[in-house]
């Protein structure tokens, strides 16, 4: 399915990242100007990032939430579904096996309100198969590590900026495996 996606459908890899904490210092890494670290540092907010990697178009879609449960997951699914126009007949959403994805309420809402979304679950303990994991590493390195966040709003802005930058520098519509081979051999 990953390399032979029908033209009227998309393959999306979904995962969660977080919690990401807003702290007054960037972490234990080296910095040329040492920041003063308070003894009793307080966390000024926590956000969880839900994201999809659209393998078909090489795009990312992320949204931040304070909590991570089935209500937020369903809201995220609603946002994802509304971001694709009517020409997309099937959305294959490939995800891990956490309980919020398999909840009865989630299945009922998907069947009733989002019939074009098909959930495909990974094998248990196989996170390396999820293509979004690499993008989470890039997000961590480029937007989160060595940054200070004063509030949840700062975290959300950093994630949003990274997502916009990723989408601006990536993107394609792949119809078959031969196109991928032709692109990589000619460049």
How would you explain this protein's 3D organization?
This protein has 187 residues and is an alpha/beta fold. The protein has one domain: Ribonuclease H-like superfamily/Ribonuclease H (Nucleotidyltransferase, domain 5). 36% of the residues lie in helices and 21% in strands. Strand 2 (46-54) and strand 3 form a beta hairpin. The longest helix is centred in the last third of the chain and has 18 residues, at 152-169. The radius of gyration is 18 Å and the shape is globular. The two termini are 26 Å apart. The relative contact order is 0.21.
Keywords:
alpha/beta; 6 helices; single chain; 187 residues; Nucleotidyltransferase, domain 5; 36% helix; 5-stranded mixed sheet
Largest sheet at a glance? 5 strands, mixed
**Strand-pairing-aware structural class:** alpha/beta
Through-space gap between termini: 26 Å
CATH architecture: 2-Layer Sandwich
The helical percent reads: 25-40%
CATH fold group: Nucleotidyltransferase, domain 5
Low-confidence stretches: 174-187
